[in-house]
Amino acid sequence: MNVRRSAAVLAAAVVIGAAAPAVAADSSPSASPSQAFPAELYGGTDPTYDGVWRQSLALLAQDTVGVRPAKGAVDWLVGQQCADGAFAPYRAEPASDCGPKNLVDTNSTAAAVQALAALGGHDAATGKAVTWLKSVQNKDGGWGYTAGGASDTNSTSVVIGALAAVGEKPDGVVKGGQSPYDALLKLALPCEGDGAGAFAFQPDKKGALVANADATAAGVVGVLGKGLVVTPGKAASAPTCADARTPEQAAANGAAHLTQALAKDGHLMSALPGAEDQPDYGNTADAVVALAARSGADAAQKPLRWLEQNSAKWAQQSGPAACAQLILAAHAAGADPRDFGGADLVKQLNATGPAPQQAATDKQEEKKDDDSPFGVWWYVGIFLVVGIGIGFLLSGRKKGPQA
């Protein structure tokens, strides 16, 4: 799930009546020389539509690989929150109260919750955000991109991830007698016909469900009760499609659909308007996460290998959200993001924002040394004693045996 996904963003533009179309992360305009964005923000492109989203993904990815993000970057994200707990995609003047121009949404809010919950120490902010998310839950149990918008698979799934991140049980968050899982099951396609087992983004104008690869990847993770960061699930047999009466079966159906879609080339195709025979790197990364979450790391190896071999240019051109997505995909499938097809994704991500703090692993090593019962001077003494002993030995060798 990312801000360049076609269905969610285009639908959001229609819902909120935006005059300008949503911009894809891999085609967003570069900042003009006269336009300066906050130094604490990851990436140098216009953050109007994706500032909070890409910041949240960047912080999550860094935390996942043991990198401590810059304090300013975290503070910037916290400062984007409105008084009611919600987040807009970007607030150029966070010191001012949120108004009609700050169009808050569930996706930005839920992503920020997941990032801040992972980093820890932000219970007040995440608590307010989750309270807002609950207040805008639809009667079918799901969420739309904006408050009051029709429920969609992507938004409902990212909110499920936010609930899980703060220790809430998604099936216990109910509106009108319906949980988020109930909403997702209504968006799952049957096992017969086109798109068997997939998830739709939303019903079309005629109420029909049309398979959507990005929504399917999001839906699989959502019905499993997981968020943007996923560890490899238990190895499972190849999923088969059956009547989706439970979240677990819906996840199996979605995984089976993705496996079939990836079988030929190892990647998904872009559904963006005007894209012809163009691979969709972001959705393929999402599919890796979904397959690993449902069926274990082995199930995601084919698309993972394709990404390792083909995603370098996309990651370099598309900025922090793309690097973060690939890091999260590598993490989900048990790969090394610091050697991803020869690329160091962590280094690339770090370079798009403020310099991170010392890696958590280094801090742990320092603490381990400090916690020694003898302390650093004990080691200094040992080396001095060893040095004296070596000195005696060398001295004896120079003098030789006495006559």
From TrEMBL:
<protein>
    <submittedName>
        <fullName>Prenyltransferase/squalene oxidase repeat-containing protein</fullName>
    </submittedName>
</protein>
<keyword id="KW-0472">Membrane</keyword>
<keyword id="KW-0812">Transmembrane</keyword>
<feature type="transmembrane region" description="Helical">
    <location>
        <begin position="376"/>
        <end position="394"/>
    </location>
</feature>
<dbReference type="InterPro" id="IPR008930">
    <property type="entry name" value="Terpenoid_cyclase/PrenylTrfase"/>
</dbReference>
<keyword id="KW-0732">Signal</keyword>
<feature type="signal peptide">
    <location>
        <begin position="1"/>
        <end position="24"/>
    </location>
</feature>
<keyword id="KW-1133">Transmembrane helix</keyword>
